[in-house]
Structures are given as structure tokens and as C-alpha cells.
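re: that chain from earlier
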Amino acid sequence: MAAGFHTTRAARAPHAVEAPAAARVQPGALRRVLALPLVLGLTVLLPAFVTLRQGAGLRDQAYWLQLVLTVYAGARLSTMILGRHRKLLQGTFWLFVYMAMGIAPLAQAVMGTYPVPVAGSRSDLALAVGLVLAACAAFDAGALLVRPGVRPTARTVFRPAMVARRRLALLVALAFAGSGLFVLRLGGLGVFFSSRMEITQSIDDSGLGDGGSQAGTAMLRGFGTVPALLALMVVTRWLITSPRARGRPLPWLTLAALAGVNLVVNNPISNPRYWFLTVLLALLFTVFPQSPTMYRTALTLGVAAAVLIFPFADKFRYDSANTPAARQSSSVLDPLVEKDYDQMAMFANTITYVDAGNGHTYGRQLTGSVLFFVPRSVWTSKPKDTGVMVSEWMAAANTNRSSPLWTELWLDFGSVGMVAGFGLIGWVAARVDRRYAHKVVRAGPASILTLAVPLVAGYSFILLRGPLLQASGRIAIGVMCLALITTLRPERWRQLR
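^ sequence. v structure.
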């Protein structure tokens, strides 16, 4: 009996060990199958498809630099998709660079058509592309300083930030109160399912946009949308990871109520497309935090969505009476030369703006973004959005233009400051990604890191696109909400579980 018992255990032991090993082989095999077509598609086929189109663009220095930047960003995006670890912050960074600073400006260079007039010479455009390329290399260099796979030593271990169980109720209450006030101030639920123009008109009618100040608007929008999203993320992760929560009715009722609130205040009809993209990615990475397949699918499909879906989603901006007439499309590249992807052209215009005698701002624009909440009635010389400031200097009819992070850092701190800034950003992103990859495997519902990283990854598209002044309101409110529910106390009874 004893011998038979031990024989049975010995016979079963290999099966118990081999099953997980087989499961680990499959993702690696899938990566190997996808590697060649993905790399070729992003670095060769898609750039070649764009460059071989007929257009009136010049094949000068700006064009060749743009082609190099596109291929480089495609190679780095391929690395993010095919890597063994999920790198949310770095992955979303390279997705944005590839589409908004790579493929789209390349299509504009080929067609000779830009979404905003380029005020200066071609040399300014070439300088803008070169600066973006240098900053991306600095981002990579900063990320390489973080050694992969190195666990924190005893000297560097610190108390993890966790969700306080009792404070979660405060966040949920803030979500309902902020969103409820948002709905009431704008005149009811109907306005949230009409168009973005209707939302803007309702805000103007409420008096929050008077005097040219956007501080009241930013606070109202921020408190109306951010706490609701963050509370939904926390409760969703709580139910996914906690059997105790799934066995109680209150978390499910809270989830249903928060989902309804987000359907109203965070829907794609009444919100800018970049914000809805933030909502979508934040919830996706919250629901599937450990899924390599979902992570790779999100980055891969993001390229297709940027071309096929994103430009056409702008129809929600207008109501039926004010929808602009559709322009006749003469090329498949037309969606890439429309106003959605004006980042490189606006960087070139900012270079021209500085060279025209306006000079660098030496931190003034960044100060205005940090102190976004100060109304212009109090701070009369408060800086404008960088995109608005440059557009007004150009005497452009439409001043609602982007100002990518490259532009913001270069305008404030020059070329050296911009490159150094992106090196620091790359270092921070790599450190956070590494810690997230280790933490999410065993983290329960209480980890602040597993909530903050998906939120920042989604919001990074807004930060990278700019202007920073417009993006600052929701950042500050998100930080306040995370601070509200955070505890560093080690007692388990204080934490969400």
C-alpha cells in the first residue's frame, strides 16, 4: 500500500509540473509567430504604403528625417508589443509617437498637405522632426538606465500605498456628488447625449466660461468625470480580485450605479475623443491587468483604430444642424492629414514663433499649467494654452490646436531641457513599468499602483498631445482622489480586501 501510494504520487508529479510549463511556452511561441509580420508591418510595410502614394510633398531633409522617425518608432512599438513583460507607460508612449509623430506627419509630408498652415520655412519643420527624434532617443536612453529584472533591495523597500477600506466610501460619495452637480449645472441628462457643442454651450450658459477663464470649466469637468471613473476602477478591481466582495450585494450595487454614472458623464458623445480613450484603456487594463494577449491586442489594434476610427469619431463634436459638409476624399491618407494630427506642424510653428522674436518662456508655460486653478481675474497675466498662443500669433481662425509635450518642454527650456526632460520621463516610465509588472501578479484589490498605472497610461495620450494647461485639471483631481483613498498603514483591517 505504501509503495503503491508513493508510486502514484511519483507518476502524477510530472503531470503537475509539466502543465504550467506548457502553458508558459504558448505565449512565447505566439510571440515568435507574430514577430516577423508585426515588425515588417510597422517598420516597412505601413511606412512604404504611405511613401509610395502619389502626392505633392517635397522629398527633402524634413521628409527623410520624418521617415527615420517613423521607422524608429515602429521598431520600438514592435518591441513593446512583443516583449515578455507588459510595459503600459512605455507602450502607450510609443503608440502615440508612432501614429501622431510618425505615420501621420509622414503622410502629410508625402501629400504636401498639413492640418494647420506651416508658418515658417521647411528648415523649421526639419528641426522640429529632428528634435522629436532626439527626444525619443533620450526617452529610450533613460529607460535603459533601469535594469530589467532587478528586485528592490532591503534598503530601497518602502511601504506600499494601498486603498483604505473606509475611505473608498468617501470616493464613491464624491463621484456621485461631483457627477450629479455636473449634470445639474449643465441642464440635465439630455445634454450628455447630444453633442460636444451642446456641452460647451451649456457650460457657457452656466457662466463658468466667462471672462476668458477656463479654471471653473476645468474644475467642473474634472470633478464631474474623474472621481466617477476612478471609483469605477477601484470597485471593478475589488470585485475581480476579492471573493469576499463578490459574495456581498453592496459592491455589486455600487458597481452598477457607478457604471450608470460613467455612461452619462464619460460617454464618447459628450467627451473629447482623447478622454474617452483614457476611459477605455484605463478600464481595459483594470479588468485584464495580467493578460499579455489583451495588452498586445490593445497596442496593435491602436494603430488601426488611429487611422480607421479616431478621425471619424469627431462627428460627435457637432449636432445634426451644425455638422460640416463631408469633404470629398481623394486618397486613403486623407484622415491622416486632417486636423487630428497637427502635432508636428504645431511644433514647427512654435519654433518659428520663438525665432520671430518671442523667445523661450523659461518655465512660465509650465507654471501656468501647474497653477491652472487660479482664475484669470486674479492672475491677469496668466499664460494661455501654448497651442492657443501660437495660433493667435499666426492669426489663425481656429485656435483650438494641440501643443505636444515636445513643444511644451522646448518652448520653456530649449533643446537641452527638452532632451533632458524626455530622458527623465523615460527613466520614470521604465521604473514604474517594472514595479507594476512585479506588483500586478500578486496584488489584491488594495494596491494603488495597479490603479494609478492604467489611469496614467490612458491619460498619457492627452499629456503627450497637449496643451498641458488643458490637461492639468484632470491630473490634479486624479491625484487628489488617489490621495483620498490611500493609506500607508500596514494593518490589513485598514485595507480593502
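Confidence is low (pLDDT under 50) at residues 1-25, 152-157, 318-326.
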